[in-house]
Amino acid sequence: MESATAKSNVIHNDDKKIEDIGDGEKKLSSDGELEANLAVSDEEGRKILTKVDYRLVPILAVLYLVAFLDRSNIGNANVAGLTTDLGMHGLQYNTAVTLFFVPYTLLEVPSNIVLKMMRPSRWITILMFSWGLTMTLMGLVSSYGGLLAGRFFLGVTEAGFFPAATFLLTLWYRRYEVQRRMAVFYVAATLSGAFSGLLAYGIQKLDGRSGLEGWQWIFLIEGLIPVVLSFFIWKILPDSPETASFLTQRERNYLIHRLAEDPGSGTARVTNQDKMAKEHIIAGLSDWKVWAAVVIFWGNTVGVYGFTATVPTVINGLGYSAANAQLLTIPIYLFASIVTIIFAFWSDYAQTRSPFIIAGYCIASCGFIAQLAIPHPLYPGLTYGFLFPVAAGLYCPFVCLVSWIANSLAPSSKRAVGMALLISVGNMGGIMGSNIYLKREAPKYTTGFAVSLTMCCCAIVMTFVLRWAYRRENAKRAKLQAEHSDEEIRAMYSEQEMLDLGDKSPFFRYTL
């Protein structure tokens, strides 16, 4: 992870004085910058990161599990009698699923701008309480219009959480450390499918209690969970290494320095403490590589959101009872979780992203081809078996892609906007995914599986394009460094200008 001792990196500045601040730490006088990193052994560095892991990652994982549970439990509610009790017909269920994504996609970029200007723990707490309250109230709806209103406001209140949480992780870990942590966090979404099926199976047994239907109990109970958690999260969720009260000053300085010295080439510095400015917003919104990554993102969201909202119904249509259909979703999501974790650790170890994205979508494509080829509802066991590669292949490339783009955007303000844009427009694929699994095509769902397969193929092609663009830019910068010394290149910029360049710096290297 680190060398036996972390090198002391000196920023030369003739007019600034070094002063000792104790415990072996040094810094420049108040008008300067930190001069020297602490000498931290490899073992001590691992202990510091482990300390951060235990404090940050489990909290975000639990929160994301709850968030994904609340946005996707409409699939379980459908099996539990939602559409029948509300007199829904035709495409009304698809419309209810889709409506969530309208505010969800429009508000993610503004949400991350707010996040960068205030404490992440406070903003995430506000979002969490709001979506929990909305979900709880959805358990009281008695009409189709009420369901639509609930889904809309659920999209409003959940919009900022995922981009906020993924951005928060990038403030703590270096580029080839962040994906495995992000995978543990994201796999909560995969596990939420399994947990949702198990929880819905149990909650359905409350059907008729207090005059409420089973699907109403699902909304009520699963909505109260984030409301209760919100009373604790604001206090225990850490915001950044600079303000982490659970770390010593020595540990905070260590994390700050190692992040600053992780621009990709080892000869420059990046910053996570830049203030949000108009230039960062424009840079994040106008980077064509982020828009290219959106197409790759659609390969995931088109399939995942259609799949999670429909898979209980698909299994139900194979001849299994509603209760067993809920339970049979569990092994599918557990398998997808295992594959996602394996891909994440392997990708960080190999220090590359794109091959794992391509491999994941290839696995999903095989699953979709099989679903199209199998004559439904014949061979229910075979049909069920090929749902496993569909889920695994859709989930595992996602965390690779988010990490890839996070690795390729600097400074942090541009990263906050760019990641929010990727997730925002990328989640518009959920609108398509929610409307391609048509009830009249059950249990074969030809349109749904065919469109999902097409988007996986498009994602594979765009991954090759983006890899080629990053490789070409890295080669240009390597050639510049070969022709000019680092001192000559640095002479063209001040230290602050070099930091402001971010991923445009001649020293920055894109991950492939």
UniProtKB/TrEMBL annotation:
| UniProt cross-references to InterPro entries, sorted A to Z | MFS, MFS_dom, MFS_trans_sf
Q: Where in the cell is it found?
A: Membrane
Q: Return the Gene3D superfamilies for the record.
A: MFS general substrate transporter like domains (1.20.1250.20)
Q: Which residues form the Major facilitator superfamily (MFS) profile domain?
A: 56-471
**Membrane spanning segments where?**
54-71, 91-111, 123-146, 152-172, 184-203, 215-237, 288-308, 328-349, 356-374, 386-405, 417-437, 449-470
One Pfam family this sequence matches: MFS_1
Region of interest: Disordered: 1-24
Question: How does the protein associate with the membrane?
Answer: Multi-pass membrane protein
Which keywords appear in this protein's UniProt record, sorted alphabetically? Answer: Membrane, Transmembrane, Transmembrane helix, Transport
> Which regions are flagged for Polar residues bias?
1-11
A cellular component term from Gene Ontology for this protein is: membrane
Q: Where is the composition biased (Basic and acidic residues)?
A: 12-24
Q: Name one GO molecular function term.
A: transmembrane transporter activity
User: Which branch of life, at top level?
Assistant: Eukaryota
In Swiss-Prot or TrEMBL terms, this protein is called MFS general substrate transporter
- Provenance organism: Melanomma pulvis-pyrius CBS 109.77
